[in-house]
Amino acid sequence: MQKTEVSFKNSDDKELKGILELPGNQQPENFIIFAHCFTCNKNFHAPSNISKTLASKGYGVLRFDFTGLGESEGDFSDTNFSSNVQDLIAASDYLEKEYKAPTMIIGHSLGGAAALFASQKLDSIKCMVTINAPSNLAHVQKHFESSLEQIEKEGFANIKIGGRSFKIKKQFIDDLRKNEEGTALKEVRKALLILHSPQDDIVSIDHAEELYRSAWHPKSFVSLNGSDHMLSNKEDSKYVGDVISAWAGKYIEKSISPELKTDHEVMANLGPEGFTTQMVAGNHYFIADEPIKVGGSDLGPTPYELLSSGLAACTSMTIQMYARRKKWQVENVETHVNHSKKHADDCEDCENASAKIDSFDREISIQGKLDEKQLKRLLEIADKCPVHKTLSTNAYISTKLKE
């Protein structure tokens, strides 16, 4: 994948900083805008993990800091809900000018409410997604109730949100009140996906129900059971990315770029950032990656896991093909494989630490009505699978530069 730092101006001529996640060197068919939660920024776990997951599925994803947050210019205390909506429109204008107009907008928490309001003014948006978002802006005001008297009297108050201190001015509260009756869904007839955790203790699940009732079809709801409001668990945010990708395929064109193809059997495409690699094998698209501990994002299997997968798949297929030809009743074949590098038993250079060979430990489980003789024969057949034969011989690999 490719990660690019970008910047663009909002309606107040403030420079907003963002990160554009791309699936590879080719331009994707669909771009997404991600609106982070209130007082968060683009580098929080949720926007980062969701964006990377969606980019691995072939989407281009722009996540940026709202005015006065993260690396973006401006003073957060001078912003309000309406300015957040305008920032999203500025992000859409930037994508349309430099790449393609966005077809999807995603918003987390208050960013979800802003995304719904912004989608009313963005004709290119076909899909809207909210994550743990409030159904009305009155909910946001409740978090400031202890400071409302001070805000009304002095015009501002320093409040703590998520353990961090922020300055909120009266104009922010006034803007919430001005918009609190708007559901943003009365006039918007675009596909909507609502993602919400029943355990969310900041924005209760009731808000998801209200959003669903207010929305026009097509609309969908998916429960984020067990996750917290911030999606602080990486697996939760990766799951959100997977769900959004699968759901959006119903409403927008295939996200994989038609340029991502090859005249060979397999192609691997990797940009200048990270190790998340776009793979094409025949008519199939998938991801390879490396573990987080070595700098990867763990969005797909490692190259050696793919190699072991080939051996495991070929073994199960070969055994079943033989059993079917013999009309033996084999209900299921499981092949388990581990890869490692070990010293050969008869190694002539075992004292050399680098003198190791690749070792594949394979265990096979065969279910069916079979006698010992049949099981023994099937175990022999396992060694005859084509991938086994390839790995057991010295294969020749020719390499040249491709024009």
Automatic annotation (TrEMBL):
Residues 48-139 form the Serine aminopeptidase S33 domain. Pfam families: Hydrolase_4 (PF12146), OsmC (PF02566). One of its GO terms (molecular function) is hydrolase activity. Keywords: Hydrolase. The keyword Membrane does not apply. This is Alpha/beta fold hydrolase. It comes from Christiangramia sediminicola.
